[in-house]
Known about the structure:
alpha+beta; Aminopeptidase; 5 strands; globular
Amino acid sequence: MEILHNDNGNTGVFYIEQNGERLAEMTYKWNDSSILIDHTHVSDILAGKGIGKLLVNKGVEFARTHHITIIPICPFVEKILKADSSYQDVLQP
Length: 93
């Protein structure tokens, strides 16, 4: 399943789309020092398949590539990032 990405330099979204319908997404805002992840949604069709964590992983890759930290406003993202020590390098204290 391919995760797509749109970014305009200030805001963006990682998402999965099928037949023109967005089935999962994670939205964010960012600046020179951090990415603020504010929303994650996975449709019932994809629920329970680990898609939310895949979206978070894409956000982590984005943060690492841009040498910025993540501020998780979305409770789901915060839970995932705090539960796994391998994400601590990008989690803003």
